[in-house]
Design brief:
9 helices; globular; 25 strands; alpha+beta; about 40% strand; ten-stranded mixed β-sheet; seven-stranded mixed β-sheet
Length: about 475
């Protein structure tokens, strides 16, 4: 039975202005080791379909996991009923959808070895070897390894004539060593974030060697000095750390639903309101943030979003100026845009798609510059590697970030490790303080797999990237 065509024919016969169906099977695997104990392993499959109906400026949505002709018709009828009821209480003239056409296409995440075909024993054996390596060090008292894999198989159809067949996949291995000494405990973590690659990527990483570095740096960190009082210091951030900073201070503030005040969960709305487009100095002239859902290996790259809009590439910030947002077919027309940027995504079949951060990266510098040369050019400052704690206000203006590994720079050299460091700044002070970005040779990506948004909560994914970057005179100090 072609449930895609049946659902769309049924929606059109009811008088829907637009409708779509998303049949989605999601497989997830999670394995967690604590020291040498396998604490949890789970393999789940979630399978069903969600149907949206748009009528008289309002949405209706219903979902089901029963695949029969009657169940599909019932689900369409429910979505249509909700749309009609929603239209009765709409604001003004209701929503308008940006123009789009139909597409017939397929998309596959490129990979060689499906992680779901790899025996559990191979995965656990690798994870156990990593934890054993870290625990070989006397001062490492805790070793943790979490492995997550996810695969989505999606069929999408709409009344515009779209028929899409999409399969996406990612793997996310993360492990942490915690050292205890001198009445203190400090941790160091290995993580490249989620990567849209097959198990062959994990095999290529040589994770036991990475475990040696993680354990040794955790020990270095627990014996390190604290920085002391907060003052203005130069700050050099590595790409792994930058991923979190740009996610919170660029990605979320430029989701158009937040900008419009439609979404305020998980740290509020946005200061980057539409009157600032084309004139607000978000960062220095060297700061260019590219939204790129065509990015090779990007977790937001699925060929098309859940509106059936093709993946695209555009500037969020161009030459330091706020240039555009991430938008959907429903949010784009509100600020006069005729086309969506394709940022509507749902987590599971039973979720209504929402405006999401695209793959987003800081464009590398144009002049050749290595991280070593950048450090050599810095008289006094702090170098931060990896992701740590963060806090940001309800308009995405003022923020505070930690990190995973810290080094003091004096006279162009890393002179000593540090611990318990925080920096504080705001938009636009922070991004306007950028004065040097390493070149494309040092560009790295980090895949976020746990971006929380919406009520009920959805877990989104996207990829960020950048090269090592210097920020001048940022408030940096020690923490307790």
């Amino acid at each position: 039975m072609d449930y895609l065509s049946q659902a769309m024919d049924s929606a059109k016969s009811l008088g829907a202005d637009y409708a779509d169906i998303r049949i989605q099977k999601t497989r997830t695997e999670s394995i967690y080791l604590r020291n040498l104990s396998l604490k949890n392993t789970s393999l789940n499959e979630i399978y069903g379909y969600g149907i949206r109906v748009f009528k008289d400026g309002a949405w209706g949505f219903a979902h089901n996991n029963v695949f029969t002709r009657d169940a599909v018709n019932e689900t369409v009828n429910k979505a249509f009923f909700i749309a009609n009821q929603s239209a009765r209480i709409r604001y003004g003239n209701g929503l308008r959808l940006a123009h789009e056409r139909g597409y017939i296409d397929t998309y596959r995440t490129p990979f060689c070895v499906d992680p779901f075909d790899v025996p559990l024993s191979e995965k656990v054996e690798l994870m156990m070897e990593v934890n054993k390596t870290m625990l070989n060090y006397a001062e490492i008292k805790l070793a943790m390894f979490l492995l997550e894999c996810r695969k989505d198989e999606k069929l999408f159809a709409s009344t515009l004539g779209s028929h899409l067949d999409i399969i996406t996949l990612y793997i996310d291995p993360t492990f942490t060593a915690t050292a205890v000494a001198d009445g203190d405990s400090q941790s160091r973590t290995f993580s490249h974030g989620g990567q849209a690659k097959g198990w062959e990527w994990v095999r290529s990483l040589n994770l036991p060697d990475k475990a040696v570095q993680v354990a040794e740096e955790a020990i270095i960190k627990v014996h390190a000095d604290s920085l002391g009082a907060e003052k203005r210091r130069d700050l050099i951030l590595d790409p792994n750390h930058l991923a979190l900073t740009m996610h919170e201070s660029i990605g979320h503030p430029t989701e158009l639903d937040r900008v419009l005040g439609w979404e305020a969960d998980y740290a509020g709305i946005s200061f980057a309101t539409p009157e600032k487009l084309g004139n607000f100095q978000y960062g220095a002239r060297s700061v260019n943030f590219v939204a790129d859902n065509l990015l090779e290996g990007g977790l937001a790259n699925a060929g098309y979003d859940d509106d059936g809009v093709p993946n695209q590439k555009w500037y969020i910030v161009k030459n330091g100026i706020l240039n555009e947002y991430g938008s959907t077919r429903a949010t784009a027309p509100v600020i006069g845009l005729e086309m969506s940027r394709g940022c509507n995504r749902a987590t599971h079949y039973y979720d209504f798609p929402i405006n999401r951060i695209p793959n987003l990266y800081l464009q590398p510098g144009q002049e050749k510059l290595t991280p070593q040369e950048l450090i050599a050019d810095t008289k006094a400052g702090i170098y931060i590697e990896g992701r740590g704690s963060f806090s940001i206000d309800q308009h995405r203006v003022n923020f505070q970030f930690g990190g995973d590994m810290f080094w003091e720079i004096k006279n162009g050299k890393k002179v000593r490790p540090l611990k318990k460091i925080l920096y504080k700044s705001n938009n636009p002070e922070f991004w306007n303080s950028v004065d040097a970005i390493c070149d494309e040779r040092f560009f790295q990506t980090f895949g976020v797999t746990n971006c929380g948004k919406g009520q009920p909560n959805q877990r989104g994914r996207m990829t960020h990237g950048g090269a090592t970057t210097r920020f001048r005179k940022i408030r940096v100090g020690g923490s307790q």
